[in-house]
Amino acid sequence: MAMAMTDAAAAITRRGGVANYRQLESAGVPRSQVALACLSGSVWRVRNGWFAVPETPADVVRSARVGGSLTGASVARLHGLWLLADPLLHVRVASTASRLASPANRATRLDAARHGVCVHYSRAGGTDAARDPLMRALAEMFTCGPGDSALVAVDSALNRGELRPHQLADLADAMVPHRRPLLALCDGRSQSGLETLVRLFLIRQRIRVRSQVRVAGVGHVDLLVGDRLVLELDGEEFHTGLAFEEDRRRDFALVQQGYLVLRITYRMIMQDWQRVMDGILALVRRDEHRWRTARVRPTPGR
Fold first, then answer.
1. For a surface tag, which of 7, 15, 24, 213 has the fewest beta carbons within 10 Å of its beta carbon?
2. How far apart are the two ends of the chain, measured CA to CA in Å?
3. Is residue 181 within 8 Å of residue 189, measured between CB atoms?
């Protein structure tokens, strides 16, 4: 009995944590063994004919209960990518899918708005997997919500090595055609979604901006606008101790070389976006981002 249960759980794990009767039988696990595994608790019944193991991520189980594959931002989150706030469960289902269920209770009919589910109807099929591969999930992100949310995730995937630059062509092929031009705005040097958001804003204002530029005596700065306006973007965590001291040392060294430094926090961008952008644009209009307005310029090779 123990071997049978191990076989069922192992087969489900190999399928990404969720599998149905047909997939298990193809793996050599008969229904009788699945039933024994359910009795022992090593396998859970998710919905009629579908099963998971206790180690399966909660969102994968919830999407299977709905009746599809986890996709979009929900998969990106499992990969640890930088994301904008998105409380929805993203589930890809066949275009002909019906009788979708609540992610919490397979006996309750799905009410997408009330249950917090974004349903991605797909003509491509292939919803038997527990969750979409990252490439497919990123492509699905461009089908719902603002394109910038998807670009934040793509930048993060490139920066972390989860996506390689040469794979952007494959991503474009998987995307809806009218969103493909957005990929020209990707930059894998971006180390946070904050950098991506601010960079995209400046690009659309036709303002020259570069990511992760190396400055002598300082290291890499998050964004360099024009010649000398440095934008350092702080994440949600508050730097204390040595990290706080290092931030201020860098700022001091930059100012000594003639750079103008703005340190912008996560909260400022997420809660006071318009004021921050207006302030940056005001500096640009005064040409504060150009060397000709500075009294000090960096010494070559310094």
1. 213
2. 72
3. no
Beta strands in the chain (DSSP E): 18-20, 44-47, 50-52, 69-70, 89-94, 117-122, 209-215, 219-225, 229-234, 260-265
Helices (H), 90-233: 112-115, 134-141, 147-160, 168-174, 193-204
- Residue spans per domain, the chain: 2-56, 61-185, 193-293
Q: How many CB atoms lie within 10 A of CB 215?
A: 17
The amino acid at residue 149 is: S
Instruction: Give 4-42 pLDDT, tens digit per residue.
Output: 446 899 999 999 999 999 999 999 999 999 999 999 999
In whole angstroms, give the CA distance from residue 24 to residue 19: 7
pLDDT in tens, 194-238: 999 999 999 999 999 999 999 999 999 999 999 999 999 987 665
pTM over 0.70? The answer is yes
User: Torsion over CA of 82, 151, 274 and 250, rounded to 10 degrees?
Assistant: 60
3-state secondary structure of 274: helix
Nearest to 229 by CA among 176, 278, 294, 171: 294
Instruction: Specify the CATH number for 193-293; select among 3.20.20.30, 3.40.960.10, 1.10.10.10, 3.30.450.40.
Output: 3.40.960.10
| pLDDT tens digits, 90-108 | 999 998 888 899 999 989 9
Place of tokens 């101790």: 241
Q: What is the mean pLDDT of residues 187-193?
A: 94
| Cβ neighbours for 189, distance < 8 A, ≥ 6 positions apart | 159, 211, 212
